[in-house]
Amino acid sequence: MPLTKKGTKIKKAMVKHYGSKKKGEQVFYASQNVGKIKGTHKKRKKKK
Question: Cβ distance 10 to 40 under 8 Å?
Answer without folding.
Answer: yes
